[in-house]
Amino acid sequence: MNCKGITLAAFLLVGGIVNSHAQDIDSKNVPAAVKMAFSKAYPKAKDIDWEKKGITYKVDFDLGKTDHSAIYAATGKNISSEKDIPNNQLPAAIAKSIKAKYPKGRIDDVDWISTGGKITYKVDIEGTPDVNVWYSADGKFIKELAD
After folding, report:
1. Residue 59: CB partners within 8 Å, gap ≥ 6?
2. Do 65 and 14 belong together in one domain?
3. What is d(CA 22, CA 114) in angstroms, rounded to the nearest whole number?
4. What keywords are assigned to this protein (predicted)?
5. DSSP string covering the chain, please?
């Protein structure tokens, strides 16, 4: 496995572990450095909800009519950012791959994810069975999980 694959696998593993221990928290319990970094990055955010996930802080919020989330270290460093995007903004190479791999499936939801400057796409596919698939920005298949 190459270095990029190992890094991605480690991130997904840590993300899964962190996600399994999430706890909603009040914004007053979020470190000042995290709140400052978030407000600077997303000054127009609305409907803000915080969670403590292990040693990180996840914030779900809206910008306009679009759902977003971001994960921060306690120092205020952004670890990852995610947003819903319209299905028609999915790169053509990914849409083509999905159509070939899941001919009876229907794209239900698309998330654009930025982690350490690397862009990935998570696509929820309804079909037989329902699955979530991840692709790199250049259209390479990463993984599939049952939904």
Report:
1. 38, 45, 48, 49, 50, 51, 69, 70, 71, 72
2. yes
3. 20
4. Signal
5. --HHHHHHHHHHHHHHHHHTTEEEE-GGGS-HHHHHHHHHH-TT-EEEEEEEETTEEEEEEEETTEEEEEEEETTS-EEEEEEEE-GGGS-HHHHHHHHHH-TT-EEEEEEEEEETTEEEEEEEEESSS-EEEEEETTS-EEEEEE-
Range with the poorest average pLDDT among 2-16, 47-61, 66-80, 85-99 = 2-16
Domain shared by 4 and 71, yes or no: yes
Range of the domain at 60: 1-75
Q: Which residue bears the tokens 């997904």?
A: 12
Please state the pTM of the whole predicted model: 0.79
Please indicate, yes or no, whether residues 71 and 95 belong to a single structural domain of this protein.
no
